[in-house]
Amino acid sequence: MNMSDMIGVLSAKGLKVTPQRLAVLGALVALPNHPTADSIKAYVNEQFPSLALGTVYNILDVFFEKGIVTKVKTDRDFVRYDIEVNGHHHLYCDECDYIENYFDEELDNLLQSYFQRKGIPNFNIRDINLQIVGSYINHNPPKNL
Ligand SMILES: [Zn+2]
To answer: Which architecture does CATH list for 89-134?
Structure first.
């Protein structure tokens, strides 16, 4: 996602394009590991040293309300943010705390047809996201958690 894509994302959601919002969006695109607000702040602070954590949270809340990001929860307490809003699953490494997007159309079809056939009593399924927990066999986790 380049700068004009990012401006397009904000405009399409009816948001005023500000340098701070662009910086936070840029951090979400640049940091591959479903970053926390803290790591987004650290990244953005290279460009905007005075941007406070509260401001980062406010921007992330607006992005969440507008459907630009989703939130990912792990066993640890921090909320992580996800810029990929198209349906996908997650691989979660419980050793290095890395979260990787996992796309598998065959799995999606399998899950969809399973639940279409079987259903869950008294529950209306809107979306199915798997969190596949394990650990990388050969992986040097990036340090930008
Ligand atoms: Zn994701």
So the answer is: 2-Layer Sandwich (3.30)
